[in-house]
Automatic annotation (TrEMBL):
GO terms for cellular component: cytoplasm. Substrate binds at T7, G8, N9, P10, H11, K12, S66, F143, A144, Y145, D146, K166, H171, R172. Keywords: Hydrolase, Magnesium, Metal-binding, Nucleotide metabolism, Nucleotide-binding. This is dITP/XTP pyrophosphatase. Binds 1 Mg(2+) ion per subunit. Belongs to the HAM1 NTPase family. Its EC number is 3.6.1.66. Mg(2+) binds at E37, D65. GO terms for biological process: nucleotide metabolic process; purine nucleoside triphosphate catabolic process. The active site is at D65 (proton acceptor). Homodimer. Pyrophosphatase that catalyzes the hydrolysis of nucleoside triphosphates to their monophosphate derivatives, with a high preference for the non-canonical purine nucleotides XTP (xanthosine triphosphate), dITP (deoxyinosine triphosphate) and ITP. Seems to function as a house-cleaning enzyme that removes non-canonical purine nucleotides from the nucleotide pool, thus preventing their incorporation into DNA/RNA and avoiding chromosomal lesions. Its cofactor is Mg(2+).
Length: 189
C-alpha cells in the first residue's frame, strides 16, 4: 500500500522516513502538493488540509503540522511559527524572553499528523517539552527553532544533536509513532 506525504519541507521528509522506514507493506512517497492552510489550531489545520488533499488525489495521504509554543508567551508563536521564524527569527524570540528565567522559559513543540483514506480522517499527536535556551546554540545547521530549544533531560539544544538523536525524541517522532501503530493494526485487520 502506498501512502502519500504532502509537504514542501525536506526536513520533515527526512525525519518521517527515518521513523516509518521499517513499516512492512507500506511505502511512503513525499509529494509537494499545495493545500490551503486555514488559520486555527494545529488539529484544525491538519484536518482541513488532509481532507482537501484526499478529495483531490483520492489516495491515502497524510500531512504533518507543527509549531513551537512558549508557555509564558501564552503559546506564541504556536500556529504562527513559520511566519515568526521568517520575520523576527530566533534572535527576536530571545529578546522577547530576556526577562524570563528558569522555569519561566518552558516551551514545547507539538506535532499533529492528519491521515485520510476512504475510512475518513484520523489525527495523531506528539509533544516534546523543554526550555528556551539563553542563546542560539547550533552545531552547523539547525532547523528553525532547533537552535533555541533544549528538550527535557538534555543540556544540548536540538540543533546540537544529530538528526537521528533529535528524531528519537521529537514531537514529530511521537506523532508519527502513534500513526505507525495505527497503520500496523490496520494492515493486520
Ligand atoms: P509544510 O507545511 O510544507 O509541511 P512548514 O515548514 O510550513 O512545512 P509547519 O507548518 O508544520 O511546517 O511548521 C511550522 C513551523 O514550525 C516551521 O516552519 C518551523 O519554523 C517550526 N517547526 C516545526 N517543527 C520544527 C522542528 O522540528 N524544529 C524546529 N522548528 C520547527
Amino acid at each position: 500500500m502506498r501512502i502519500y506525504f504532502a509537504t514542501g519541507n525536506p526536513h520533515k521528509v527526512k525525519e518521517a522516513e527515518l521513523i516509518l522506514k521499517d513499516l512492512e507493506g507500506i511505502e511512503i512517497e513525499a509529494v509537494d502538493i499545495p493545500y490551503p492552510e486555514i488559520q486555527g489550531t494545529l488539529e484544525e489545520v491538519s484536518e482541513f488540509g488532509v481532507k482537501y488533499l484526499y478529495r483531490k488525489i483520492k489516495k491515502p495521504v497524510f500531512v504533518e503540522d507543527s509549531g513551537f509554543f512558549i508557555e509564558v508567551l501564552k503559546g506564541f508563536p504556536g500556529t504562527y511559527s513559520r511566519y515568526v521564524q521568517e520575520t523576527i527569527g530566533n534572535r527576536g524570540i530571545l529578546k522577547l524572553m530576556e526577562d524570563f528565567k528558569g522555569e519561566e522559559r518552558r516551551a514545547y513543540f507539538k506535532s499533529v499528523v492528519g491521515y485520510c483514506d476512504e475510512e475518513g480522517v484520523r489525527l495523531f499527536k506528539g509533544v516534546v517539552r523543554g526550555w528556551v535556551s539563553y542563546e542560539i546554540r547550533s552545531k552547523g545547521y539547525g532547523f528553525a527553532y532547533d537552535s533555541i530549544f533544549i528538550p527535557e533531560g538534555e543540556n544540548r539544544t536540538f540543533a546540537e544533536m544529530t538528526t537521528e538523536e533529535k528524531s528519537r525524541i521529537s514531537h514529530r517522532r511521537r506523532a508519527l509513532e502513534a500513526f505507525k501503530d495505527y497503520l500496523k493494526k490496520k494492515l493486520s485487520r
